[in-house]
From TrEMBL:
Protein name: Integral membrane protein
Secretion signal span: 1-23
Source organism: Streptomyces daliensis
Region (Disordered): 178-219, 427-458
Bias (Pro residues) ranges: 436-450
Keywords, comma-separated and alphabetical: Membrane, Signal, Transmembrane, Transmembrane helix
Length: 458
């Protein structure tokens, strides 16, 4: 890469960092941001009939779904890897939803109609919308019904009352493939801590700045510690935490007190909500919402210990692999009674336990999204989203390349300088030495030697 090109690219990338993001946020005005579907999500249209479902391959897709609709998709699975297919429903902020039973029904089946896995995420904020997600899976080693290679069917149905909003919901679909294991499959652990009482959250004042995202794809990373952020009334923010094998996540999200509300501050029901998800976007437990009446309020989540065998356990099955665990934080629009612009948040994050060795995967589980790398831990310490981490890595590459190019140019310039000096010294020596006088005989040839001064090598 030429030095000038490297420098220009570096400057362009620097310009694309937080400063430009701030400008975009300012341009958006006071509107509450909606769910951010992955930029690389492929457009797809689910079919009304199971026989016409478009094929999904590992990756992310976008679709929409109307009230009462059921969408079908097809997947071809092998006989080695486990498959996790998730769906995120993301109504526009402020959309009307039912108070009970409104949400999605997600199912993965064989073409013969045998169910492999299902999920039914629902809204639990008293009729207010926010992004909800669930996952249907095909687990290897679980039973005999869904172990064969071949075609399978994914269905996503929007369920609820006829009084909910008529607008179509954006859908984000994701297919993750977990490599199989070498050798035998672990059994369910004796105790994964799924029924443990949550310990006291990490104490101390907020010292780190968190940057919540608009969805799973731009969620801001968090590490163990106390973080601060702000959330607008009616907004949902996403965060992610790397949790390794043998570890568990204890977290608490707090909404600060307010001096507004007068002598008898009104109660905002379902004011602050927290939902925890595993790396495949499966809910670890039902959404937890709490009320608010001017005093500080908090919600928390405590995951089971991450263990491969959890997938076969009666409880704690939602923590069967390591990777990025997600926190979805939702603020009621009625909090505008107390906070005109944004409400201060405190996030207390505690990744507990010592990381253990990963199972013997027959493939790169970390690359597939089922593990934790050193880069992941660094991103968490710095509070970066996936896109910010990628830009940061690109900048480091450009910087190293630029340094290499710059060093190379310096060496070339030094070499040119030395060569020029040597030539200059040689030319000076040749010019100062007297040329032998030649006889004035035109028949005698000129002797070989350096050209006369003025016509020498430059």
């Amino acid at each position: 890469m030429p030095g000038g090109t490297a420098a220009v690219l570096a400057l362009c990338l620097v310009a694309a960092l937080p400063g430009s993001a701030l400008a975009a946020g300012e341009a958006g005005g006071a509107d509450v941001p909606g769910y951010g579907i992955a930029e690389d999500a492929r457009q797809i249209k689910g079919a009304a009939s199971s026989g016409d479902g478009p094929e999904l391959k590992p990756g992310t897709y976008r679709d929409t779904i109307g009230r009462g609709e059921k969408r079908y998709y097809s997947v071809n699975l092998d006989a080695k890897s486990s498959a996790f297919l998730s769906a995120v429903a993301a109504p526009e902020p402020g959309s009307k939803v039912g108070t009970v039973g409104e949400g999605l029904e997600i199912s993965l089946e064989t073409v013969d109609g045998d169910e492999c896995g299902s999920d039914d995420p629902q809204f639990r904020a008293g009729g207010r919308s926010y992004p909800i997600a669930g996952t249907a899976s095909r687990l290897m080693g679980e039973d005999d019904e869904c172990q064969k290679a071949g075609p399978y069917l994914l269905s996503v149905e929007r369920v609820g009352s006829d009084t909910s909003g008529r607008g179509r919901w954006p859908l984000e679909l994701r297919y993750m493939s977990e490599p199989g294991l070498k050798g035998s499959v672990p059994t369910a652990p004796g105790d994964n801590g799924a029924d443990d009482e949550p310990p006291t959250p990490v104490t101390g004042s907020a010292k780190k700045q968190a940057n919540g995202g608009t969805g799973f794809n731009d969620a801001g990373a968090l590490s163990t510690g106390v973080w601060k952020d702000a959330i607008e009334p009616g907004e949902t923010r996403f965060y992610r935490v790397p949790v390794d094998w043998g570890q568990r996540l204890n977290t608490s999200v707090e909404l600060s007190s307010s001096s507004e509300g007068g002598e008898f501050p009104p109660t905002v029901f379902n004011a602050l909500g927290l939902t925890a998800y595993n790396p495949a976007r499966g809910q670890l437990e039902d959404d937890d919402f709490t009320d608010y009446h001017a005093e500080s309020a908090s919600v928390g989540a405590y995951t089971p210990v991450v263990d491969f065998g959890n997938r076969f356990a009666n409880s704690g099955a939602e923590a069967p692999f390591a990777g990025w665990y997600y926190l979805e934080v939702t603020a009621s629009p009625e909090l505008a009674k107390y906070f005109k612009k944004s409400a201060p948040l405190t996030l207390r994050v505690d990744v507990r336990g010592k990381a253990k060795e990963a199972p013997a995967y027959d493939g790169d589980a970390v690359a597939a999204g089922f593990g934790v790398s050193e880069d992941d831990r660094e991103q968490a310490e710095e509070g970066l989203s996936a896109a910010e981490a990628e830009r940061s890595g690109t900048l480091r590459t450009v910087a190293v390349t630029g340094i290499g190019v710059g060093a190379g140019l310096i060496l070339v310039l030094v070499a040119w300088t030395l060569i020029a000096r040597r030539r200059a010294g040689r030319d000076a020596t040749v010019t100062s030495a007297p040329h032998p006088q030649q006889p004035q005989n035109p028949q005698q040839p000129q002797p070989y030697g350096y050209p006369p001064s003025g016509n020498g090598w430059q």
